[in-house]
Each structure stands twice: as C-alpha cells, then as structure tokens.
Amino acid sequence: MTQLTPIRGEHLSTALSLAGDGVPVLPLRAGKLPFGNCRNCADNACGGRPNMKTPGPCNCFAPCHGWAAATTSPSAITSRDWMRAWREGAAVAYHPGGARLTVVDLDNAEAIAWAHEALPATRTVRTTRGEHWIYQGTMPSANAVRPGVDIKSSMAYARWLGPGTGPITALSDAVRALVVQAPAPVRPATVAVPTPAGGGRCPHRTPTYLARGIAMAEQRITEASSEVHNTVFATFLAVLSTHGRCGCLTEAHTARLFAAAQAKGESPRHCADAWANALTRLGM
Looking at per-residue confidence, does 170 or 60 come out higher? Predict the structure, then answer.
C-alpha cells in the first residue's frame, strides 16, 4: 500500500494542474477504463449529463458517465467520491474536445510512418506502443479510421501521458477528412425501407419535394455542433413521418442520410438503431 501512495498523489496533482490550465480531467481504473456509473446513475437512470447521447441534468458528484465526467472544478476533483477514485485509479485521462483539442492516436510504427507522410507536424506525445499527435481544434471522434489510427476529440477521452514535444498545430482538413472517409458503406440489406401504404401512391405534388427534404435532412445532420446522436434520430424521425408511408423513400435515400450521420462520427450500428427506433416510434 505504501508504494502506491506517491503514485496516487502524482495523479491528483497532475489532475489539478491540468484542470487549472482548462483541461477537463477524469480518473481511469486499471485497463485504461473510466469508472462505471454509481448506483444512482446506473443505466443513465439519472437522465445523463448535458451533451451526452442521453441528455439531461445530473447532480452526481462521483466520477460517473465516462468522458462526460471530465471536469476542471478543483472542488469536484478533490471531493470525497473523486478522492476514492484517485486512490483506486491507475491513470489520469482528459477530454480533448473539452479542451478544444484533437488527438490522433497512432498505435504502431506503421501508423506513425503514415502520419509523417500524410499529416502536418504537431505536438507529439509518446505512448506505450506509438504516439499521440495533438492538434488545436475539435472534431467528431472515430475509431479505426485507418489501420492503427483512432481520432479522439469530442465525446471521447485520452490518457494523459505528459505534455509532449513541439508546438501544437491547428487542426487541418487532412485530419478532418479521416473521419469523413472512415465510415463503412451501409449495406442496403440492413436498412429497413417502410412498405408503402395506399398502393404506393405518393401524395406529394412533385419529386422535387422529396429531393429537397432529403437535402435539408442531410444539412441538418451535417450542421449539428452537439448532441449529434439526438439530431440524427430526430432527423430520421422527421423524414420518415413525412415520406415513410407513401413509398417514395428508397435505399439510396437512406444511404445518403446514413452517410451524413457517419460523417459526423456516428457508427453504422448507431445509424441502424436510430432508424429502427424511428420506425418503431411511428408504428411502421
């Protein structure tokens, strides 16, 4: 026990120092995992926290809710529940998006070599197996955008491994494009298109009505700056409520909507779930 005490003290002092610089922090337990929700917040029974996929107020002072627990409040970091977590914790993590940062996590030598060829130089932090490249600016987070490369920014956490070396470069289009290009194509078989009612007759005046509606839906998703998951669901719901019962929606239309959502960081599974939930909500 005595051998662990200095490490815990180091974690706490590191967390307070980062918080003082405006970097939201949280403790990690063994395995680089955040602490699970407390009993009162299990399964988001509390309603979650703002900007989470399940938004709502939460007054819990424990380090709950994964990345959303990250804070810059010294009183929270040194509270009883957090001190218990620091005693049990194995590392300090931070929310890059909350500090207006993006981490390109390069997991091996091949990924690092690729980054030197494809991405602008920036601050570098050595990791156990590779490097973190830190950029100024935020973007959607995504895993496996290419072999050995993850993006950690909004709605994600990264382990704190030191300040790194070199100046921080502004987030470039080359980095942003990684998430845009990353989503796998949606398989039409996984997307349920509603069966037309009324013999498939479309009540809309012209085909341009549907085209304009799909374009507006894509724009709404693309322009979402927060609560992307909720925006995607609400947009799917709106499209289906307007066009889902007349048979004018095709798999090509749904593929466009899914592509827009995935470009904002939604996974194919989240897209399929949101679409299915919208169908269920409308009784289709």
Answer: 170
66-83 confidence digits (pLDDT tens): 888 899 999 999 999 899
The domain boundary residue, chosen from 179, 205, 239: 179
Contact between 222 and 179 (Cβ < 8 Å): no
Query: How does strand 123-126 pair with strand 131-136?
Result: antiparallel
pLDDT at 172: 92
Q: Check whether residue 201 and residue 270 sit in a common domain.
A: yes
| Tens digits of residue pLDDT in 186-224 | 444 455 555 554 444 555 656 677 778 888 888 888 887
pTM over 0.85: no
Residue ending a domain, choose from 74, 92, 110: 92
Structure tokens at 88: 């049990």
24 plus 44 within the same structural domain = yes
Scanning the chain, the segments in alpha helix (DSSP H) are: 5-20, 74-77, 80-88, 109-118, 173-181, 207-222, 228-243, 251-263, 268-281
Counted residue by residue, the chain has a size of 284
Residues 108 and 55 in one domain: no
Residue 43 is part of which domain span? Answer: 5-92
Residues 122 and 172 in one domain: yes
Per the structure block, which two tokens stand in for 240?
């289906």
CA distance 48 to 108: 35
